[in-house]
Amino acid sequence: MAISAPLPYAGEQIAERVATAVREGLSAHPKFLPSWLFYDEAGSTLFDQITELPEYYLTRTERGIFETHAGAMIARAAAGERLRIAELGAGSADKTRLLLAAASRRQGYLLYEPMDVSASALEAARDRIERELPNVHVAPRVMDYTTEMELGSTAAGERRLTLYIGSSIGNFEPEEAALILRRLREQLKPGDGILLGVDLAKSEEILIPAYDDADGVTAAFNKNVLLRLNRELGAEFEPDAFAHRPIWNARESRIEMHLESRLAQTVFIAALGMAVHFGPGERIHTENSYKYRPGHVEAMLEWAGFSPNMTWTDDSGWFAVCFGQVPDRW
Ligand code: AVJ
Fold first, then answer.
1. Are 270 and 233 contacting, i.e. CB atoms less than 8 angstroms apart?
2. DSSP assignment, residue 118?
3. Could you report the per-residue pLDDT of 119-166, keeping only the tens digit for each?
4. How far apart are CA 326 and CA 213, in angstroms?
5. What is the dihedral of CA 230, 281, 37, 272, to 10 degrees?
6. Beta strands in 103-234 (DSSP E)
7. CA 87 / ligand 1 centre spacing (Å)
8. DSSP 224-251
9. 289 CA from centroid of ligand 1 (Å)
10. For ligand 1, which residues put their CB under 6 angstroms from it?
């Protein structure tokens, strides 16, 4: 039976973080907004729609990898012991179910510890998973893993497998990404592991449409950040005065999303007492989505103190899921 106690909600701290990030990003040259701002309620709904678009190959490709290999992944991570599964940035935890099902088939009772900044996403995930997988007990934590990484201890003879899937790590610059992995490893014991899902570099003809779909859902997702500033900071952005601009930056191996001002304009942000000027064609950089080259993820895992143990990909080599383990010397 699912227990539906409300999770603590850090509403005030979030409002403060939004204000600080917007003040900083919109006074910078060039202007930027951090990509975590996308995920208010409307943005999370738009992202769920993106994952079902024909052009957005990431989600269904990774799901296919789990459909084929979840059993092997779990067997490798458990190595005969009992597993508990943690997840960074769990969101709606949809693909995770394949791994949870494989683990609970193997061992019966399974503890699942999803972590996310969104309490509402965690509550929805908990209710659904406990309803669909009765052997799985969900212990959600509202946590921002970029600023705090506190996993808590595990029992003797129990291994923790941490999921960091969905190309979520792709939003971070490689140095930041490596530091997140290192901080995670510091919380783990020898034998514990990580499953890291990353998108791989591929031709621009495939990458660009994935971030510029025919239905304009990604454009709406990108512009939602402006609507969020209107809602939460009393800003006066006119979303139609900006164009959605996805760009493939081959040198950095990343897709960038920008919002490009169609004209010279000044936008007031009441809560910040700020007037932001835009020249025609001036951009706000709203997201980086890194695309890894084969071998780079493994190298990054190794730098963070994991032994890269196995990598699974799809037949086209579009997406990779790497398993890294904490070696005995830690
Ligand atoms: C949730 C970070 C994996 O980078 O593909 C989707 C976000 N941005 N479309 C990605 C996103 C535009 C997505 N991640």
1. yes
2. -
3. 888 898 899 999 999 999 999 998 888 888 889 889 999 999 999 999
4. 40
5. -50
6. 110-116, 136-138, 141-142, 158-164, 193-199
7. 17
8. HHHHHHHHHH-B---GGGEEEEEEEETT
9. 7
10. 50, 58, 166-168, 170-171, 211, 218, 221, 287, 289
